[in-house]
Amino acid sequence: MEDILSHFVALLVVMATCDDVRENVKKYYGSRLESSGDLQTSAASCAMPCSVPRSVTEALNLVHPEVTKRFFGCGLPFPAKLEGCRVLDLGSGSGRDCYAFSKLVGPSGRVTGIDMTEELITLSRQYIEYHQQKFGYKEPNVTFVQGYMEKLSEAGIQNDSVDVVLSNCVLCLCPDKKAVLQQAYNVLKEGGELFFSDMYASKVVPDHMKQDPVLWGEGMGGSLFWQDLISLAHSVGFSTPHLVSASQIVVHNSELKAKAGDISYASSTYRLFKLPKGPVKSEATVTYRGTVADFPDQLDFDSSHCFKKDVAVEVDGEMAAILQNSRFFPDFKIQMLDKPQTKSESTPQCCHLNPFLLADKLGSCVKQCSKTNK
Ligand SMILES: C[S@@+](CC[C@H](N)C(=O)[O-])C[C@H]1O[C@@H](n2cnc3c(N)ncnc32)[C@H](O)[C@@H]1O
Ligand SMILES: *[C@@H]1O[C@H](CO)[C@@H](O)[C@H](O)[C@H]1NC(C)=O
Ligand SMILES: CC(=O)N[C@H]1CO[C@H](CO)[C@@H](O)[C@@H]1O
C-alpha cells in the first residue's frame, strides 16, 4: 500500500486547477483503490450510526458484494420516508447507496446516481438487472449518469424535479462546494431536502494541505470546517443544516496523521431543506402522529429533535416551516403559535450543530460500531 501511495504521489504534480483536482480524484477512486480497506482513514468503517432502521440494513444486505466492495462512503445518508420519492445521489461511486435507495423508494420511486468516474459508472451499471430481479421490480427504477455534480442540468437533471438529494463522502473531494450546494438546491422541489454524509474538519484546512494529492484524495485536504457549512447553506438559499449523526475519524497512516497536525476530522450527516421564500416564520406546537414507516413510537428527525408519538412539543419557526412544507407534513399535527421567531435558538457557536461534540457524546456507540466492522 505504501508503494502504491508513493507511486501515486510521484505521478502527480501540484494541483492547480479544478480540472487537475478532478483528474486526481478520478484516478484515486477509479483505479488506485481496489476496496474500502485501502483508504487511509477509518471513514468507511466508522460509518454506522447506533440505531439503523431494519429496512435500511435489509436493503444494504441485498446489494451485490462486488458493488459493496467498492463502497467509499463515510456515513449512512438514509433519511426516513423515502418511499415513492425521486432521489438523486451525488457522487454515486459503485452504486451501493443507490441500490439500497432503489429498494427503499419502491417501484413507484426513482433513483438517479451521478458520478464523474467512468470506471465506477461502468461498474455500477453492470448490476442494474441483478437488483431489479432481486427487488422484484417490473422495470429498473435506477439509472446511473456519468457527469459532474457541479453541472446537473448538463447531466439531464431538471430544476425542481427531485424530492431528496443524497450524497456520501463526495463534497469533501470537490473544490467548489458552493457550486455543488447551489446545484442541489436548484434541482430540488420546494420542500425537498439535501441529506448528506461527509467529512468535516475541526478548523479551516490550510492551503498547503489542499495541494497534497493524497490528503485531497482521502478527503482530508478538502474537508470543510464544519461551521462554514452553515454560511454556505444559507448563501444558496437552504435552511440551517440540522445535524443528524457524527463520529470521529481516525487517521491510521502516521505520515498523513503528522501532516494533519492539530486538525481532527469527523464524519457527519446533515439535512438541509429548500423552503419557500416567505414572511417571518412563526413558532408552532407539533405532534407526531406515529405514521412514518419504521418509526411508530418516535421519529428521530435529527440529533436534537426526537418526536414522540402523540406528544405535543414547541418547535422554532424554521422547524415548523420544515414540517409544514416537506414530505413529513401529513405525519404531524401542526398548530402555529402567533409568536414570531425568537433569536435565542441561533447562538453563534451553534453547539447543537457541532459534529465533534456529538461524536464525543456518542463515543461509546462508535466504538461498538468499529468493533463490529473489523
Ligand atoms: C469517496 S467516493 C464515494 C462514492 C460513493 N458515494 C460511496 O459511498 O461509495 C467519492 C466519489 O465522488 C465522485 N466525485 C467526486 N467529485 C465529483 C464531481 N465533481 N462530480 C461527480 N462525481 C464526483 C468520485 O468519482 C467518487 O466516486
Ligand atoms: C435552474 O435554476 C437556476 C436558478 O433559478 C437558473 O439560473 C437556471 O437557469 C435554471 N436552469 C434551467 C436549465 O432552467
Ligand atoms: C430512473 C428510472 O428508471 N425510473 C423508473 C422507476 O420505475 C418507475 C415505475 O416502474 C418508472 O416509471 C421509472 O421510469
Walk me through this protein's architecture.
By secondary structure, the protein is α/β, with parallel strands linked by helices. It has two domains: 2-276 and 354-362, Rossmann fold, CATH 3.40.50; 282-340, Ribosomal Protein L9, domain 1. It is 34% helix and 23% strand. Strands 1, 2, 3, 4, 5, 6, 7 and 8 form an eight-stranded mixed beta sheet that branches. Strands 12-9-13 form a three-stranded antiparallel beta sheet. The longest helix has 15 residues, at 18-32. Residues 25-26, 29, 71-73, 91-94, 96-97, 114-117, 120, 148-150, 168-170, 173-174 line the site of S-adenosylmethionine. InterPro entries: Arsenite_MeTrfase-like, Methyltranfer_dom, SAM-dependent_MTases_sf. It comes from Lates calcarifer (Barramundi). Belongs to the methyltransferase superfamily. Arsenite methyltransferase family. Its EC number is 2.1.1.137. Residues 1-18 form the signal peptide.
Key terms:
EC 2.1.1.137; Arsenite methyltransferase; globular; 2 domains; binds S-adenosylmethionine; signal; binds 2-acetamido-2-deoxy-beta-D-glucopyranose; 374 residues; Methyltranfer_dom; three-stranded antiparallel beta sheet; disordered N terminus; arsenite methyltransferase activity
